[in-house]
C-alpha cells in the first residue's frame, strides 16, 4: 500500500465529498485479440485458462465481510467471430449472477459488445463500462495498429447503444498514448454530446498512461500537469451530473491528487486489493487516505457502482439489490 505521510493538500473549494467504490475484481480471462502496445493485462488467445465459477465463488467469499460492494468483471476480449464468443458471453453472465447471488453489485467491462450481448448483460449488471480512450484515428497507426476493437467510431457507437438501451454507463479517456490536447477536447465533447442525447453516462475516468513492466513497447508517462489540466477542461466540458474520476494509485507526484481534486475531480474509482490493468501500481491504504482527506476538509465516502440518479433505469430485480446496499450505506453514515 502507498502511504500519505508526505502529502500536501489543497483545501476543498466546492463539494467536500469525494467518493470511491469498495470493489473487488474478477477477470474471466486475460486473453485478448487486441495488441495495444502499452498493455500490461493481456495474454494471447488460447493461452489463458478461463476463471471458473467455483474459483470465483471462493475468491468472493474471502471479501464478503470486508465491505466490498462492487464486483468489477473485467475481461480481455474474445474475437467477435471466435467460436468461443458465445461461451465467453455466458461466463460473463454467470459471474454477474454469482456476484448478485452473494450480495454484491456487478459492473462489467468487457470491450465492445453487440446489441444482444449488451441487453443480456444489462439484466445482470447495475452498470456497464467501456473506455472510449481517444477518438483520433491517428492512434490506429501507432499504439492501436494491432487492436481492431480500438476503432474509435466502434467504441463511440457503444456509448450510443448503451444510451439507447438506458444502461448506466462509465467511460473515460486514456491520456498520454500519443494524442494531442485537441484530441482530448474532442473526445470529451463527444462524450458530452452522447450524454446530452441519452443522459446515461455517470462518470468519466481520466486515466494517465503509467508505464508497466509487461508492456510490449515502453511509452513515457503522462506529465502530472497534463492530467490536472485535463481534469479542469473536463469539468468545463462535461455536464455537472457526470462525475470525474482519477485513479489515485496512478498519481505519482505528492501534490497531484490534491491538484486534481482542486480542478474538479470528485471520484477515486474502485479501491481494490490489486489493480489488474496497472499491476505495477499499488492502491493506497484506505484508512490513511481517508484520514489525510479529512484533515483538509474532504469527506471520503463509499458509493455504489451505479449512481443514485440512474437507479430507476435498472430492471426492478436489480433495483431491489441496489436498495439493500443504499440502506446499508445510509445506516453506516448515521452511525459514524
Structural class: alpha/beta
Oligomeric nature of the chains: single chain
Shape: globular
Low-confidence stretches: 1-13
Mean pLDDT: 93
Helix content: 25-40%
Count of DSSP helices?
Answer: 9
Radius of gyration using CA atoms only: 19 Å
Number of strands: 9
Largest sheet: 9 strands, parallel
> H/E series, N to C?
EHEHEHEHEHEHEHEHEH
- The percentage of residues in β strands lies in 5-15%
Distance between the termini: 25 Å
Descriptive overview:
It is a single chain. The chain is α/β, with parallel strands linked by helices and 336 residues long. The chain is 36% helix and 15% strand. The protein contains nine helices and nine strands. Strands 1, 2, 3, 4, 5, 6, 7, 8 and 9 form a nine-stranded parallel beta sheet that branches. Helix 1 runs parallel beside helix 2, helix 4 packs parallel to helix 5 and helix 5 runs parallel beside helix 6. It is globular and about 55 Å long. The N terminus is likely disordered.
Short account of what is shown:
With 336 residues, this protein is an alpha/beta fold. The protein contains nine helices and nine strands.
Amino acid at each position: 500500500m502507498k502511504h500519505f505521510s508526505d502529502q500536501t493538500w489543497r483545501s476543498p473549494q466546492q463539494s467536500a465529498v469525494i467518493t470511491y467504490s469498495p470493489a473487488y475484481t474478477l477477470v474471466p480471462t486475460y486473453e485478448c485479440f487486441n495488441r495495444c502496445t502499452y498493455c500490461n493485462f493481456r495474454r494471447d488467445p488460447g493461452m489463458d485458462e478461463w476463471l471458473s465459477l467455483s474459483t470465483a465463488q471462493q475468491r468472493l467469499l474471502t471479501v464478503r465481510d470486508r465491505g466490498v460492494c462492487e464486483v468489477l468483471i473485467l475481461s480481455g476480449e474474445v474475437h467477435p467471430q471466435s467460436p468461443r464468443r458465445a461461451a465467453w458471453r455466458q461466463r460473463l453472465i454467470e459471474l454477474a449472477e454469482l456476484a448478485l447471488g452473494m450480495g454484491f453489485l456487478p459492473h462489467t467491462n468487457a470491450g465492445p459488445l453487440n446489441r444482444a450481448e449488451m441487453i443480456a448483460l444489462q439484466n445482470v449488471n447495475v452498470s456497464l463500462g467501456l473506455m472510449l480512450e481517444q477518438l483520433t484515428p491517428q492512434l490506429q497507426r501507432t499504439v492501436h495498429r494491432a487492436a481492431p476493437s480500438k476503432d474509435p467510431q466502434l467504441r463511440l457507437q457503444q456509448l450510443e447503444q448503451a444510451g439507447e438501451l438506458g444502461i448506466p454507463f462509465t467511460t473515460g479517456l486514456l491520456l498520454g498514448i500519443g494524442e494531442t490536447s485537441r484530441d482530448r477536447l474532442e473526445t470529451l465533447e463527444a462524450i458530452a454530446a452522447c450524454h446530452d442525447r441519452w443522459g446515461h453516462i455517470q462518470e468519466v475516468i481520466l486515466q494517465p498512461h503509467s508505464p508497466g513492466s509487461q508492456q510490449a513497447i515502453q511509452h513515457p508517462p503522462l506529465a502530472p500537469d497534463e492530467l490536472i489540466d485535463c481534469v479542469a477542461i473536463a469539468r468545463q466540458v462535461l455536464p455537472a451530473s457526470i462525475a470525474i474520476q482519477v485513479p489515485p494509485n496512478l498519481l505519482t507526484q505528492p501534490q497531484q491528487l490534491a491538484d486534481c481534486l482542486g480542478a474538479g475531480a470528485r471520484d477515486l474509482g474502485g479501491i481494490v486489493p490489486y489493480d489488474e490493468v496497472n499491476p505495477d501500481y499499488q492502491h493506497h491504504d484506505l484508512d490513511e487516505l481517508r484520514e489525510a482527506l479529512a484533515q483538509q476538509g474532504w469527506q471520503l465516502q463509499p458509493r455504489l457502482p451505479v449512481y443514485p440518479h440512474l437507479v430507476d433505469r435498472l430492471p426492478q430485480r436489480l433495483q431491489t439489490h441496489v436498495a439493500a446496499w443504499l440502506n446499508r450505506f445510509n445506516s453506516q453514515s448515521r452511525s459514524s
